[in-house]
Amino acid sequence: MKTIIDPEACISCGLCIQTCPDIYEWGSDNLAKVKVDVVPPESEECVREAADNCPTDAISVEP
Ligand code: SF4
């Protein structure tokens, strides 16, 4: 699984970083960014949760 954040849509609420700190982090531009190339299996559930709960639907998930 891969996950992508649309920087145009992120409003820096921090929810994804709270939900899935192994996968998302703050970038130097104060927007959330993805810190892994491939999501490890044990983090797939929290990535789905983060994508579902992002208030601006900025997070996408690819199989
Ligand atoms: S949950 Fe969405 S809007 Fe909030 S920091 Fe993460 S990507 Fe940005």
At the first level of CATH, what is the class? Alpha Beta
Major β-sheet annotation: 2 strands, antiparallel
**Shape by Cα distribution:** globular
Mean pLDDT across all residues, rounded? 98
Helix content: 10-25%
Counting DSSP E segments of at least 2 residues, the number of strands comes to 4
Count the DSSP helices.
2
**Unreliable residue runs:** none
* Bound heterogens, unique: iron/sulfur cluster
CATH topology: Alpha-Beta Plaits
Name of the CATH architecture: 2-Layer Sandwich
Q: Alpha-carbon distance between the termini?
A: 5 Å
Oligomer: single chain
Question: What's the number of domains?
Answer: 1
Strand content: 15-25%
Provide the succession of SSEs: EHEEHE
Provide a descriptive summary of the structure in words.
The protein has 2 helices and 4 strands. The model has no long low-confidence stretch (mean pLDDT 98). The radius of gyration is 10 Å and the shape is globular. It is of the alpha+beta class and 63 residues long. Strand 2 and strand 3 form a beta hairpin. It has one domain: Alpha-Beta Plaits, CATH 3.30.70. The strands form 2 sheets. Strands 1-4 form a two-stranded antiparallel sheet. A two-stranded antiparallel sheet has the order 2-3. It is 24% helix and 22% strand. The structure holds iron/sulfur cluster (SF4). Iron/sulfur cluster binds next to helix 1.
